[in-house]
From TrEMBL:
Enzyme Commission no: 1.17.1.8
Record-level Gene Ontology MF annotations: 4-hydroxy-tetrahydrodipicolinate reductase
InterPro entries reported for this sequence: DapB_N, DHDPR_bac, NAD(P)-bd_dom_sf
Keyword Oxidoreductase: yes
Protein name: 4-hydroxy-tetrahydrodipicolinate reductase
Principal EC category: oxidoreductase
Pfam families in the record: DapB_N (PF01113)
NCBIfam families in the record: dapB
GO annotations of cellular component type: cytosol
Organism of provenance: Candidatus Hakubella thermalkaliphila
BP-aspect Gene Ontology terms: diaminopimelate biosynthetic process; lysine biosynthetic process via diaminopimelate
């Protein structure tokens, strides 16, 4: 059983991830962190029913938790704390948060190489977006003047 904590649990992607974890037989959602919906049962929030996992507003409130994986879909300004918390405990990290700086990426790479924690960063999990980035990279050799416009849903907190 893989024990997982989700940071940004009440956001659009966070809810989807929590629902997916709760649906899996070999995964256990052991913690949900968010600044919204604090005190609410995450299962109830995502339409799964009561799970006994209450949303807290800080990783520090996850006392006696022993997750194996931390998934962060919060905000780029909060990711440093999530990564530090996980690395201190030997927890593996998946970051899907957008807007990370080059400095943050460099630090996370160094942390991953010098710790027991693997850190996987994919700021866009949508297959269409990943393919678009790759195809744009390939096409850039053939187009002198080209503009790419990034568009997000209107609830995205850190939309460019």
């Amino acid at each position: 059983m893989i024990k997982i904590v989700v940071v940004g649990a009440s956001g659009k992607m966070g809810r989807t991830i929590c629902r997916g974890i709760l649906d899996e037989k070999d995964m256990e959602l052991v913690g949900a962190v968010s600044l919204q919906e604090v005190g609410r049962d995450i299962g109830e929030l995502v339409g799964f029913g009561l799970t006994g996992v209450e949303i807290v507003d800080s990783l520090d409130k996850l006392i006696n938790m022993t997750p194996q994986v931390l998934i962060d879909f919060s905000h780029h300004s909060a990711v440093d704390k999530s990564v530090a918390w996980a690395v201190e405990r030997g927890v593996h990290v998946i970051v899907g948060t957008t807007g990370l700086s080059q400095d943050q990426l460099r630090r996370y790479q160094e942390l991953s190489l010098s710790s027991q924690s693997n850190i996987f960063i994919a700021p866009n999990m949508a297959i269409g977006a990943v393919l678009m980035m790759k195809l744009s990279q390939l096409a850039s050799r053939y187009f002198e003047d080209c503009e790419i416009i990034e568009l997000h849903h209107d609830q995205k907190a850190d939309s460019p």
